[in-house]
Amino acid sequence: MDVVSPELNSLLPDEIMDTEDIEDVPHSQPGTTGVHSEPSDDASVPMETDTPMASENVSLCLATSTATTKTTDSVTGTSVTTSGLQKLTTPFTISPANRQIILNKVASQASEAAKSAGNPPQVIKQDGQKLLVTAIGKSGQPIVLQLPHTGSKPGVSQTAGDTKSQAPQFKVVTIGGRSDLKPVVGNQVTTLQTQQLKTVQIAKKTPASSAAPIKFIITKTVNSKGISPQTSVPPVITGRVLTQSSPVMPPRTITLSEPHNTNLQSIPGKKIAISPLKTPSKVTVVSVASPTSSASQKSVALPVNVALGQQILTVQQSTSVSPVKVATSQSTTQNIKPVAVGGVGGSQFKTIIPLATQPNVQQIQVPGSRFHYVRLVTATTASSTGQPSGPSTSSIQTAKPMVVSTAAVRMSVPVVPAQTMKQVAPKPLTSGPQVVTTTQTQQRLIMPATPLPQIQPNFTNLPPGTVLTPAPGGGNVGYAVVPAQYVTQIQQPPFVTLASSSSFSASTGIQTQARLPLNGYCDCFANGEFCNNCNCNNCFNNLEHETERLKAIKTCLDRNPEAFKPKIGKGKEGESDRRHSKGCNCKRSGCLKNYCECYEAKIMCSSICKCIGCKNFEESPERKTLMHLADAAEVRVQQQTAAKTKLSSQISDLLMRTTPVISSGSGRLPYTFVTKEVLEATCECLLEQAKKAEQTHQPQVEAERMILEEFGHCLMRIISSAGKAKSDCASINC
DNA sequence: GAGTTTGAAACT
DNA sequence: CAGTTTCAAACTC
Questions:
Q1: What is the rounded CA–CA span in Å between residue A491 and residue A230?
Q2: Which residues form the CRC domain (predicted)?
Q3: Has residue A544 got a pLDDT over 70?
Q4: Percent of chain A with pLDDT over 90
């Protein structure tokens, strides 16, 4: 088990790491989300609950303020004690012997100690235990994941030739705890005290927000054996989460069943990037519901720590099993649309769906919408038993996949709204199942970085973006099946460098860079959108190249964490509502041309601007003149437009009134009566009237009036003659 | 539409 | 952090 070091995490872009502005997504029903290890009558018992807790802010960082967690490896005798704030980024130890995973802030150190003592830090491999998961902390309680005994693992059928695959790798991500975590049948989960899970960043902002409910999610793979872990937990397939020292609540253990044939490779040095430094704004909730569960499917907005701007990709999969139910109090549409997750307006959700390998995904363009929608056309017919349908995952087929109800599922992943949401999608360089825990206040999505040999049986068979239904009565948590591509895309080069066996990532990264010009991104990309109907050449900014695209995004964020943030944001207190985040640097344009980003945004230059000869300030006469001219021009345009519209309307009206009388029958139009002779006669009349006025020394105004009056008389005569002619013609015809 | 100007971003 | 380069948008003709 590896965890990204704080140093590495510090390299993560702010969008990913910063969560200050993120607020909880309201949960309609606390304590309703749960994970079902298997279809069973116990579906009503969720693994996690949504009960709001005070100071429930939980980040991926497993932080404990006071509680001390101590775990002892029965085999190695290694004891790890942790106390104080604990970040998940720190490695945690896994004790194969006692089948426990200990989230330990000093795990790395303990691991070193264990290693020096002859105990390999990655003990998980030894037992071939596959999945793990997370923690859901409950107040004050450390999380211990207990792995199932591997002694008798009949179902483990590793792919021939892959020695590493036999050694399962566990990815554990603990985000936060919930107070009301409910044990799932056969699964025992102990929760940590919320305070322990609280991250420093969160603590700074909201020490204890009772209003912010914590939502945690546990992702697990369930053995298909259908064995009820509650009564008897097969050592092979179950992992167990134990609660330690829970002063308030009794420790609860969640037994996590693991797939028999997981191919995850345990690669030392692999780390899970979990925002160590900053509290994740939202935690992606991945919930797995028991297929047999009668509970409706629920969708959860899943923020992705990819600052893509404002796109929303939604994947909707519907099956006849059960209706989709929005886990959050918000409507389905709301899940799709940007949701004010954070206090900062503009937070938006995006559902990121790797489509490269998903032929059944359709990209939907919504007119007038900046959001991209993706629909999964063909719903995966994942059976309630969770049996993988894909042959590719044959090795895992025996394993009982997580209870994935593929009934109607809907997932929306909020993509990092530039300044509102920051989250981390930890990318394990090695493929492996990952545990996702979430708090109500924050959701974090942990996605498999690479093709998940082991967990795929459970998830890969589902369409990307599929939301695994939470347990009936469970919280507003949904488990999203996210293809590995997304994780890899989100991952950054820094992670690659850390990976001991990062050949995959490194190679892909190089390839991506070669194919995607880093400096030549179009507006679509800059806006976090897919290119559509663009004139791009060899465009990779599309769903077909989502992997490359996300890598490029990650690269951009590496270089400039602000890359996808809107440049025009809200100013400080007392300042203008809108201001440039960086300020312009104009030298020759005087900040009065669109070269200036401030001017272009129609905002004044501020003190942070470094422009020279700036004229874009409130009192600037040049600016005022420019504005006046612009306003005048705009007014003129509007007037002209209005005049044209009115004239057009009048003409149409005139034609409508005259045409039926005159044109009917003979089919001649009124203007056909205005012959050359008629015009000449009319003009002569007008000239005569003008002469008359001149001779009588009438003032100009009176002369004009006389001429116009004469013109009116002429028109009346013309119309009258036309009508008479029409009438005569009609009578003749009769 | 071609050429020039400009400034942000990337790069060193 | 400063200087240089690159490049696409804005602008001009």
A1: 37
A2: 508-619
A3: yes
A4: 0
Residue A636 pLDDT > 60: yes
Q: How far is it, in rounded angstroms, from Cα A79 to Cα A72?
A: 4
Q: Quickly give A543 CA vs C6 C1' distance in Å.
A: 28
Paired tokens of A609: 């601007």
CB A158 within 8 A of CB A261: yes
d(CA A447, CA A217): 13
Q: Name the phi and psi angles at A373, rounded to 5.
A: -115, 145
pLDDT for A607 equals 83
Residue A516: the pLDDT is 37
pLDDT of residue A83: 36
**CA gap A592, A620 in Å, rounded:** 10
Residues in chain A, overall count: 734
In sequence order, the β-bridge partners of residue A387 are none
β-partners of residue A569 are A579
Q: What pLDDT does residue A106 have?
A: 36
- Residue A407, amino acid: A
List chain B nucleotides near protein: any atom < 7 Å from a Cβ: 5-11
* Helix/strand/coil percent split, chain A, to 5: 30, 10, 60
Which nucleotides of chain C are near protein (any atom < 7 Å from a CB)? 6-11
For residue A484, give both structure tokens. Answer: 């590995």
Is a pLDDT exceeding 50 seen at residue A527?
Answer: yes
Give pLDDT, residue A489. 36
- Distance of alpha carbon A27 from alpha carbon A448, whole angstroms: 26
Give the closest residue to A424 by CA, choosing from A89, A138, A177, A90.
Answer: A89
The model's pLDDT over A79-100, given as tens digits with 9 standing for 90+, comes to 433 333 333 333 334 444 344 4
Separation of CA A520 and C1' C13 in angstroms? 28
Q: Are A65 and A196 in contact (CB under 8 A)?
A: yes
* Distance (Å, whole) CA A470 – CA A549: 31
Cβ(A284)–Cβ(A413) below 8 Å: yes
The token pair that represents A373 in the structure block: 């929608």
Nucleotide with C1' nearest the A521 CA = C8
Contact A304, A279 (CB under 8 A): no
The position carrying tokens 């028109």 is A715
Q: Does the structure show a pLDDT above 70 at A518?
A: no
- HSE at residue A292, side-chain half, CA atoms within 13 A, is 12
Pairing mode, strands A324-326 and A297-299: parallel
Nearest Cα neighbor of A622 from A590, A666, A579 is: A590
